[in-house]
Amino acid sequence: MSGRVGDLSPRQKEALAKFRENVQDVLPTLPNPDDYFLLRWLRARSFDLQKSEAMLRKHVEVRKQKDIDNIMSWQPPEVVQQYLSGGMCGYDLDGCPIWYDIIGPLDAKGLLLSATKQDLVKTKMRDCELLLRECTCQTEKTGNKIETITLIYDCEGLGLKHLWKPAVEAYGEFLCMFEENYPETLKRLFVIKAPKLFPVAYNLIKPFLSEDTRKKIMVLGANWKEVLLKYVSPDQLPVEYGGTMTDPDGDPKCKSKINYGGDIPKKYYVRDQVKQQYEHSVQISRGSSHQVEYEILFPGCVLRWQFMSDGSDIGFGIFLKTKMGERQRAGEMTEVLANQRYNAHLVPEDGTLTCSDPGIYVLRFDNTYSFIHAKKVSFTVEVLLPDKASEEKMKQLGAVTPK
């Protein structure tokens, strides 16, 4: 049995009745605690009464702390309203609201330098509440119970800038918030226009997703417009995405409903860096350098680094070893990222590199030009692996678009 209203086993019916009894003290604080609502929490925890109750009670506390009942009257900061991409637009064939996330033009670093992470997560929670209210309106309008949403992830332009560690961590917080407070509300998620980097990006966020959520993700190939039209009527799909819907002024992107983001002007910045923790620190003597090696086993892996220096600038470059098992000078290796000096004592440096060849990659911190000062460098380096399942799926579909 599916565990939904009208499709419950005797055991599930008994669990629902017991669950309602166990949480009856908090039900009056919730917007619409009907059987549909309670079953969402039970399904999310496989009808384990103790776990379902703990999950719901935690949600009730979050609602109090965040004042969720009044969140629609809260206005996000101007920079978030203008530059956080995405929006609700149209309904699928069953009447479920559709939400678009536009990844490419999203300036994740600019947002984190211009707004607090708390405001960003609260904005996404506000979006979730907006979608749930729209589900209620659609239920009244169609006469059928609408309790789920369709997501369309437009990944055109997904690039290395989106793998910036603080941005991934912030997005992870949002995904955790969604999983913990809005269980079983995702109907399906379409990924369209996915570039070669998508399997790496997906592998970073996959740990934040439940197994049930992962099963609802559909990575579409070059025929994505045709596939979307199997689930969405043309008049409910913007022209930009293969339908006939436009804004009243004829805009095919429906920008009155979907925010397409963009680079954030620095006038909005309220800080010049995001505080980070570093895994390693090293003292580099004057006239010397420090090398760290990372083995890349197959193409498509991504090196991600962050570093800061203490008191003065530091040189940095990346090389590929030509001989195994021995330290090589920079001139003996293949240069992958040209060595240059960074003012990492003023603003921490970060970056990513897609490794096109397997081998031993050397990240080299260079202080050879300094004849007087030793330098302390703090750094974190990670090797990001692609999700092999999604990588294979994209190859089968021909879903990879140039990047």
From TrEMBL:
Gene3D superfamilies: CRAL-TRIO lipid binding domain, GOLD domain. One of its GO terms (cellular component) is cytosol. Keywords: Lipid-binding, Transport. It comes from the Eukaryota. Residues 76-249 form the CRAL-TRIO domain. One of its GO terms (molecular function) is lipid binding. Residues 275-383 form the GOLD domain. The keyword Transport applies. This is SEC14-like protein 2 isoform X1. It comes from Lipotes vexillifer.
